[in-house]
Every structure is written in structure tokens, then in C-alpha cells.
Design goal:
Length: 341
């Protein structure tokens, strides 16, 4: 039986998942909900299914088995909770929310319902990075040094608004914070500093260029951030991120472990020490996280990035900004996370 799949929030990233779902012959795309009716209609015309104005209408009228939720960071909570109440499995893009109260409420609903969930932390499913995790197992990890440098501001209008996008740590560098947890385990404390190093106000007569933006009205978020992380294992970590315009994307890691130095560049990795090698991901790596979810819904696999992982990774970002608010003191994850996490 084909999985009856709906989409909620069909803006930028949804097209990646729509194309991947369309390519599977065990999936039937049955509907698209977006508060922007033109987007819902365009998705329905391109991928099949019916356009809806709200997730509730999609749930009620199309009766999906599962949904892919690609709404902006601020638009989470009720969509997921209602899916749980109706027994609908969901894949949700990172970050799972902009605050931990919302994420904790959804987690309770997930746990009460037993639906399958998966969060779009696609780096975890890259075969080279899975190989790195195997190589690190059983070794003492000393340092997890991550960076996320993006040469400008993404176009969605919510991105430079702290209350809507959550800031670069929550919205985007979360990929690297999640990968740090995947490779080195739970984080205990976070120390953070942020800066705004350039003037983002558009100069008179400025016309936005296509792609990443150099200027935005009402830019509210830090453009440069540094964190120091202490892992429960005893490892230390750092994260540097910036969206100050420059030449190139640069996303990756160094991991120093007993007998091994690992360099991660996006989904690819190389390692040297008592074992030596390198691995490059093929172009399908980015789809593995959704494929795993759809396989689980089909009953032929399991979700390895369930909702609770999204809550834990969100907490690392929130701890970073909380530390900044408190003047740079360490913030313990145990203070922020729901009991038992
Ligand atoms: N994993 C990745 O590599 C990756 C890449 C890009 C974006 N993302 C994540 O995907 C999410 C969406 O990003 P985007 O760039 O596609 O944003 P976007 O603004 O382009 O698209 C979001 C869509 O959701 C719709 N929407 C807003 N509120 C809604 C609601 N309540 N119900 C239904 N639809 C609603 C908007 O109208 C819009 O069409 C973000 O959390 C972002 O971090 C992940």
C-alpha cells in the first residue's frame, strides 16, 4: 500500500522533499497545506494532490497516513500536536521550534501517541559521517570543533527576526550542534558570546541581488556567534558561526580523539591516525533522512532521528543564547530540558 503523504508549509525546502517523495512508487502525495494559497496551489499542480489553507483541513479532508512539515521555525506546535492526536506520523524540518516550551509540549504529545517522527538533521545520515561515528566509538574524544559560515542572509522574511527564526544558532548552526551530539554524545553545559559586526540596513537605492542577501530591513539577530561546549563524556567543543557576507559556504568540523584526527567538510570526511581514509557522500545523501522516515511508515525500517533528538539539539542552541543573556556564564542543559532528557 502506498503511504498517503501530505505536505505542510510548501516554501523553499519543501521542494527537496517533494521531489524525493514523488520519486518513490510507494508514496502517494495527497495534499499541500500552506497559509499562502498560491504556494499550496503551485505544489498541488506540480506534484499532485489537493491544496489546503491549513494543516487541520489537510488532516480532516485528505486523511494522510503521514505528513512532511516544512513550516518556518515559529510555526510549530499545534500542527504537530494535532497530527499526534489524529495518529498521523510526521517528519519535521529542523529546528523543531524556536523555544523549548513548544518543543516539550509536542514531545509529550508524541510520547502519548506513539506516532513515528523524524527530524530533518540530514548530516547524521551521510554515509561518511556514519563511518566517522563508528571510528569514534570507544575512543576518548577530546575536541569537537565545528563551524557554520554562510555568505549572507537567506531570503525568507522571518530569518532576521529573533522571535520568528530563532537566530542563526537555532535556525541553522543547529545542524552542527546536532552532529556534535551524534559524534560525541550529550552536551552538559554551553557558554556563548554573540556579536553584530556589520550594518545590515540597506543603503539608499540598494536592489536585493538573487540568492543570499547582503542587507535586510529590521535585521535583529547576531551575525556572529561563538560557543564553548562541555560534553558529558569530558570532551570539549566549540562552535563558530557567522552569516557576514563573504565568498563561500563553509560548514564542517575537526574532531580530535585518542589516535584519530577527523576533518568533516559538509557530508564528507577524512581521517588520519591509527586508521587512515576518506569518504565522499553521493548526491542522494541529502534524501536519506526522509527515506528512512517513509520506510518506517511503510513498516520496513526505523527512524533514527526521532523528535526527542530535535528537542535535545534545540536545547543546545537555546543554552547558547541563554548564556549570552546571562553575560557569558555556563548554562547547564539540565536546567532547560524536560525532566528525563
Ligand atoms: N535541512 C535543511 O537543509 C534545510 C534547508 C532549508 C530550510 N530548512 C528548514 O525548513 C524550514 C522552512 O524553511 P524554508 O526555507 O522552506 O522557509 P519558507 O519561508 O521558504 O517556507 C515556509 C512555508 O511555510 C508556510 N507557512 C508558514 N506558516 C504556516 C502554517 N502555520 N501552516 C502552513 N504553512 C505555513 C509559508 O507560507 C511558506 O510557504 C525552516 O525551519 C528551515 O530551517 C532546512
Amino acid at each position: 500500500m502506498a503511504v498517503r503523504l501530505g505536505f505542510i508549509g510548501v516554501g523553499g525546502i519543501a521542494s527537496r522533499h517533494l521531489q524525493a517523495a514523488k520519486a518513490r512508487d510507494d508514496v502517494q502525495i495527497i495534499g499541500h497545506a500552506d497559509v499562502d494559497p498560491a504556494r499550496a496551489r503551485a505544489a498541488a499542480e506540480s506534484y499532485g494532490g489537493t491544496a489546503y489553507a491549513t494543516a487541520s483541513e489537510l488532516y480532516e479532508e485528505a486523511q494522510p497516513d503521514a505528513v512532511v512539515i516544512c513550516t518556518p521555525p515559529y510555526a510549530h506546535g499545534d500542527i504537530e500536536t494535532e497530527a499526534c492526536e489524529r495518529g498521523i506520523h510526521f517528519f519535521v524540518e529542523k529546528p523543531v521550534a524556536v523555544n523549548l516550551d513548544t518543543a516539550a509540549a509536542v514531545l509529550s504529545a508524541v510520547q502519548a501517541s506513539g506516532v513515528f517522527t523524524q527530524v530533518g538533521y540530514m548530516y547524521r545520515l551521510s554515509p561518511p559521517l556514519q563511518r566517522v561515528r563508528e571510528l569514534l566509538a570507544g575512543r576518548a574524544v577530546a575536541m569537537v570543533q565545528a563551524h557554520y559560515y554562510m555568505p549572507g542572509l537567506p531570503e525568507p522574511v522571518w530569518w532576521p527576526k529573533m522571535a520568528l527564526g530563532g537566530g542563526q544558532l537555532v535556525e541553522q548552526a543547529t545542524h552542527m550542534l546536532d552532529l556534535g551530539r551524534f559524534l560525541a554524545g550529550h552536551v552538559e553545559t554551553v557558554v556563548g558570546r554573540t556579536a553584530r559586526v556589520r550594518d545590515w540596513t540597506p543603503p539608499p537605492g540598494h536592489t536585493p541581488e538573487p540568492g543570499l542577501l547582503r542587507y535586510a530591513q529590521g535585521f535583529e539577530i547576531p551575525d556572529t556567534t561563538a560557543l564553548i561546549l562541555s560534553y558529558e563524556s569530558g570532551a570539549l567543543g566549540t562552535l563558530s558561526c557567522s552569516l557576514v557576507p563573504q565568498a563561500a559556504w563553509d560548514v564542517g568540523f575537526k574532531v580530535v580523539a585518542d589516535g584519530l584526527l577527523v576533518t568533516i567538510d559538509g557530508p564528507n570526511a577524512r581521517w588520519a591516525g591509527d586508521v587512515q581514509g576518506e569518504a565522499t557522500a553521493d548526491e542522494r545523501w541529502v534524501h536519506a533522512v526522509l527515506d528512512e522516515f517513509l520506510d518506517a511508515v511503510q513498516g520496513t525500517g526505523e527512524c533514527t532521528v526521532p523528535y526527542v533528538e530535535g528537542v535535545r539539539s534545540l536545547a543546545v542552541s537555546i543554552a547558547g543564547y541563554t548564556s549570552v543573556e546571562r553575560g557569558g556564564v555556563p548554562v547547564a542543559l539540565a536546567e532547560l530540558l524536560p525532566a528525563g532528557l
